[in-house]
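Dear colleagues,

As part of the handover before I leave the project, I'm documenting each prediction I ran so the next person doesn't have to rerun anything. This entry is a single chain, and its sequence is reproduced below.
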Amino acid sequence: MPTFTAPDSTRLAHHESGDGPPLVCLPGGPMQSAAYLGDLGGLTSHRRLIRLDLRGTGESAAPADTASYRCDRQVDDVEALREHLGLERIDLLGHSAGANLAILYAARYPDRVASLLLITPSVYAVGLDVTAEDRLTTARLRRDEPWFATAYAALEAVTAGRAAPDSWQALAPFFHARWNDEARAFDAAGDRAKNPEAAAVYTAEGAFTPTATRETLAALPAPVLLLAGETDLAAPPRVMREFAGLFPKTEFVVQAGAGHFPWRDDAEGFVSAVEAFLGVGTGPGD
């Protein structure tokens, strides 16, 4: 397991697998170890995946200063990883909450980004609004599922601000194309791999300056892939289309039938979309 040292001397780990040009991957959660990304649906057949365990997660050490869990304070961890890898520029992928970190890195180090891939991304870094109706409309696409009535009632409670203790767990089926034993096990493993203390700090006050970030992104020289899941409550396609419009060079893809983890829902479709984007001569060696 390769390790490197962050600017504040925290030891950080990353995991490498696959063949081909490197693709640096930032996990979501927030603050979940990178293990859940796996091989991203078989993308390792085309790319060398470099999955970073964020500080305090997975095999990375916890920092002395827990305030450094804040998203903007981790940007220089990504820069330290780039330097450790000896790459002039990086192809950078961020999933879900990890997309916030990828966005802040691109805003601070635009010339170090060869391409930016945002997979079902969180919107905190850019300050977009996901409304209750966005989520409810997206959820109704699953109305024929056997679990729909219970899950939709929980979603109505959550969006109305009257969530019960078990409401959030009841939403879990919406995030997967198939709610089966494998998806349940995946969710349970993800819960165990999160750092709750770090997650509470990740989006703390001061982490994001959306207006300034959006102004910087409007001039980002790197091409951007924004991939949304058709049925993803966390990143509904309407909002994702607006998100894609913040960049000068964006490819916007809505993966049919996919939820929040599109490489698990349709691996072939996900890998095809990513490779179609990355395979046009935008890598760090070009």
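The chain has one domain: 3-127+196-278. The beta strands are 3-5, 11-17, 22-26, 48-53, 90-95, 113-119, 224-229, 250-255.

All the best with the project,
I.
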